[in-house]
Amino acid sequence: METITIKDIARLSGVGVSTVSRAMNNHPDINEETKAKIMEIIKEYNYVPNNSARNLKRSQSRTIAVLIKGISNPFFSKMITVFEGEVQKKKYSFILQQVKEQEDEIDVAIELIKEKRLKGIVFLGGFFTHSKEKLKQLNIPFVLSTISLTEKFEDAGYSTVAVDDVKESYKMVDYLCGIGHQKIAIIAASEDDESIGKLRLEGYEKALKKHQISWDSKLICRMKPDIESYSMENGYAVTKELLESGKEFTALYAISDSVAIGACKAIFDAGGRVPEDYCVAGFDGLDIAYYYQPSITTIRQPVEEMARESIHILFDIIRKKAPERNIIFPAELVIRQSTRKLQ
Amino acid sequence: METITIKDIARLSGVGVSTVSRAMNNHPDINEETKAKIMEIIKEYNYVPNNSARNLKRSQSRTIAVLIKGISNPFFSKMITVFEGEVQKKKYSFILQQVKEQEDEIDVAIELIKEKRLKGIVFLGGFFTHSKEKLKQLNIPFVLSTISLTEKFEDAGYSTVAVDDVKESYKMVDYLCGIGHQKIAIIAASEDDESIGKLRLEGYEKALKKHQISWDSKLICRMKPDIESYSMENGYAVTKELLESGKEFTALYAISDSVAIGACKAIFDAGGRVPEDYCVAGFDGLDIAYYYQPSITTIRQPVEEMARESIHILFDIIRKKAPERNIIFPAELVIRQSTRKLQ
DNA sequence: TTGTAGGCGTTATCAA
DNA sequence: TTGATAACGCCTACAA
Question: What DSSP assignment string belongs to B283-303?
């Protein structure tokens, strides 16, 4: 089956290619009858225009892309839906593009911009330690959403939407201390983490300091590098080891809800109870933290609002209504069954 | 900043465009020195070739796409990783393409095939009630993975990888009956479901029939159409209603693990215990079913193997090594804490 | 309202 | 080993 082109349709309809083009793209100055006839032929022959040719020719488009690193992270699920809806509301089309683990999101973005003539980009997830110069290559508006930035990047001339990981993490540990816990273990990211893992650990340290609890390196557990990071499995493995080490603790703070759930399972398997024997807390506010038994105390990030705001900022920049913005959303400490006051 | 093209690079390097093209695409007959020089210029000017132009010109490519309906379904997470790895092993490039809820996967596929000159496609998720004629428009090899098909589509000249939903569902309900349950409620899909929901319900009915348990329509609960289907939230709402109805039952079979978890939560909230007061079972074999407390009895689908096999079949077809195949994988009944023998 | 023709940025053929 | 040049399929002045 030969691939059919606009020329074929033109020939079959007995018109010129430009008329076919006009028919397809809803141009105003075209006779309704000829348009109808052409559309019929198109349908009959199942003609589908080639996007590469379109994109190549067009100098403009109305499309926004969201690039996600870690596309199956449940934290992003709801955000994706919001992005899609918000973009659609603006009558733009929406592309969701996965960035593979080993890929550089900026490189992917640059390619995509040229290929699809994008109007704007939202980056979701990942680390982001790119030079300003590299970011400049993206010469279209973009927003970093839910991406932790090393401090030096603050006010760097681009927009960001995030929570203050240090502060929110502090909030959680402060709460745990406040209800009497002194021996608080943390499941942090692996040593080489320069991202949220580091920031959340920093919040932990600050809170301990405030409560004058001395630092115990044996309570700082690191996710295992050979297991998927931030996974339930990792939380399970780390907690199992902690329990077997015999090190005493009354609360366990996992820097993500998934890890917290893995931790709970390890405790149950060892015959422990949550929160009676060990309190467990997470971070992120995933749905499952609510549905888990016991429900998990966590820091809930306002994901929907963050997604919505990301798109708003992006369109403000596109429409030159506003300059870059750096929005820090407040997150919420949600106290549930997995933690209790120490008697 | 003007967008820089291959012509600019040619001019800047003092060579012709074809030489630049050869340098970029690792063509054999090119002087190593000129190649090096060109590559340097490319780097210096951050030149990135336009994919649309490439795709337009190329008549071939080595790329495989996976089209997913419901990209944030946790059931697909592991499969995605496997797909990516397997495709890479074959030295092909891999594209993950989301299909939006209201989109037609075949239409998306047809566009993508033309745009990217795809070599093959895997369809993941969704319903699939397309006519043969429509499928014929995809004139490249493809595999339907984890897609439920209405029976009339069996042996229809295309490849599929799936489990036998009726049989596996039967297995679960047969097990529940076998350990003494007579009043087994089911949380099925909404009425209009023509997909796995229908098949799994069919398995339930068959098992009841075998055990000569009379059919009780009050125990057939349907997911709420106004809540995301197959979600924990939906399971929660349905179960809450069931409990409040006062209808007696000893076991609750949810046709997906997520729904089962929502169901458990509703039972807990009502002061019930699992499995002591109500046994709960799920379907799919998500990780969370193992990590949940109590761990959930489920039917585990061999997702990794299914993903791997999908790619193998696809490449066999591409390389003309084999004709279409329809593989039914066996799933496994995994008995865990959420179910118990009725005394 | 319609058709012709040029060009979007590449790759590939063919001479040189 | 290299460089012109003709496609690839579409859109869009511009002319009719």
Answer: SB--HHHHHSSSPPBEEE--H
